[in-house]
Amino acid sequence: MSHMFPRPMPHRSLWLIALIVLTPVIGAEPNATIDDAPLVIVTSRAPGAGGTGQGFVIGEGSFVVTALHVAADRPDGGDGHINAIVNVYSPAWGAVCEARLVAADTEADLAILATPWRGHPAYVLADSSDVLSAGRLRVVSRHTMVDALHHGQPDRLADAPRMDVVDLPVDYIAVRAGRPMGLRTGQADEVGEGWSGSPIFFRDRREVAAVATKSTRTVNRLGEEESAAIEGASADLIRDKMDAARQKQGFVSYKMGDAPAHADRAAPLMLRAFAMAKADRHPEALLILHELKLLRPESAAVHVLLANEHQDLHQVDAAEAEYRQAMKLNTNALGPRILLAQMLNDVDRRDEAVKLLRAAWDEGLPKPQLAVALINILGQEAPVDQRRAWIDAAMQVNPRNALLWMCLTQCHIGTGDAPAAGDAIATAIRLAPMKFELRIWWAEQLKKLERFDDAEQQYQQMILIQPNNPTPRYLYAEFLRERGPERVEDALTQARKAMALPDEGKPPRDVIRELIGELYSAQVDATE
Length: 528
Hints:
Elements: E1 16-19, E2 39-46, E3 49-58, E4 63-67, H1 68-71, E5 85-90, E6 95-105, E7 110-114, H2 128-132, E8 136-141, H3 143-150, E9 164-176, E10 179-188, E11 199-202, E12 208-219, E13 225-234, H4 235-246, H5 263-278, H6 282-295, H7 300-312, H8 316-329, H9 335-346, H10 350-362, H11 367-378, H12 384-397, H13 402-414, H14 418-431, H15 436-448, H16 452-465, H17 470-482, H18 488-500, H19 509-527
Helix pairs in contact: 5-6, 6-7, 7-8, 8-9, 9-10, 9-11, 10-11, 11-12, 12-13, 13-14, 15-16, 16-17, 17-18, 18-19
């Protein structure tokens, strides 16, 4: 399994639920007293995953609050998260920067990010007493803008409102030890997927009561989805996590910057380039980013964006130059190190890639992402003791990273410790039970260990996880074919089912068709 960095309310068994009487949902109009400037866009880039969401700035203009599943790869169904490279885009400043995950609450799906900015427009957090007495709430979002960016639709940006606003009643407040830790709003048609990371205000005040972390839709007796409610982590929990982040060793050394100029010119360029790149319109995105670089020559993140576009256009030398310039401008930036190392490895310059990553490790840059990147490039050529040291250090930062547990499984397999390997992969799957790629890799390892019945169970689980995806059925058919003539008919059944599913391009239709032909021939040969 490759670990490259390519381009959901939690359980509350310990929480007391304070119920609030519902009042009818009232449509909202934008509230002029709420400033949209603290609203930001958050992107994450993790191995095999990536996303676009939103957040908001708080504190002294350096911290960003968002949902954990926005800032990291958080597979459905598990209680883990996989660390990502995170960028924050400020439409108010026309600026983009790399951010670090400095505090998280997995249960509440809450993330606190640190940026190199100081003095960015920020919101103020509400007091506990105000949250406990809340009656009506106002959710403020850049949902329309984020949706246009996520789907690569630059022409929608010009008409996108500065804010999407909806008023909602309080359904309940979740209280722990007398303090509000979370809340749930009443339902509305306007909200749903894509609102995570939005601030939740009191309707008539400017203080933030919570951050939206999840939207849930009810289903009626006919199986039809109805309006959605929003769940969120409260201001008290956000404040606790911010305090913990400030006390972290090394945080104060994270380089701070100043408010940039020309925001009115830079912001539309930044957003349009984002959407162009998302739409695979790389030449156009590149031209816009060069214009943006004239306004933001000292922005390491802009240079990384330029490098991404050069790389997508197979312009390796230009991409390398931009990555290296980004590293000079921000020596604390993780993104350019990992992305350049991956590119160097792809063009057969592995020694340079490993040297780059080892230097980043020695300089104290985030361990979970670096450990995965190093192991991905070196594989079993790195001694087991070295890989274990990387994994152990990374797990000190995030013991709930399923990819680290997968890497540990590889180590145990390499030393012949099958029970330990089984325990490690079981932990990985518990942390990320719906992560399709993890099960593919484990099924392949089980085949190598000749544990064919266990491997077959993994393929069957893949089909249950993604029933409308042809890939798991195709892989299952290949596995069954390898099991011998007595499983050819089962293999043919799975291949035909894969062919009948919607075409997602992976695997290509002609590949599935070829497998069906080969299986049919094998079936005929077996009957002669």
